[in-house]
Amino acid sequence: MALTVLQEVAPPFVPEGAHAMTIVIEYPPGDPGTPPHRHPGPAFGYVLEGEMVFELEGAPPRVVRAGEAFWEPGGDVIHYQDGNNRDDVPVRFTVTMLCEPGKPMVDLVSEDELRAKGWSRT
């Protein structure tokens, strides 16, 4: 047996009554991904193929490549980017989210809030 720890984190909170949801997301080459958004709880992911641009509020953008893990705390933290970093191959990643009952798993952030925070996609 082989066991490899990809990441180990202590999420800042887990919503009361949370349920886990695991999804696979695939973006075609050059796709910018989901517009800036939030998740109601923490999310843990792993890039299966390609490269994803990953940017959370308070941190610089970074590239997460196939075989690498990522996570985000959820709650009020804005997830600015999750798009495909490459224009020649798709990106495919899996995410397990701890979702708060009765709330959508993705909450898009308004343009007004983005402007107020001084963020713009270049």
UniProtKB/TrEMBL annotation:
It comes from the Bacteria. Residues 24-95 form the Cupin type-2 domain. Transmembrane segments: none annotated. CDD domains: cupin_BLR7677-like. InterPro entries: Cupin_2, RmlC-like_jellyroll, RmlC_Cupin_sf. Gene3D superfamilies: Jelly Rolls (2.60.120.10). SUPFAM superfamilies: RmlC-like cupins. This is Cupin domain-containing protein. It comes from Amycolatopsis nalaikhensis.
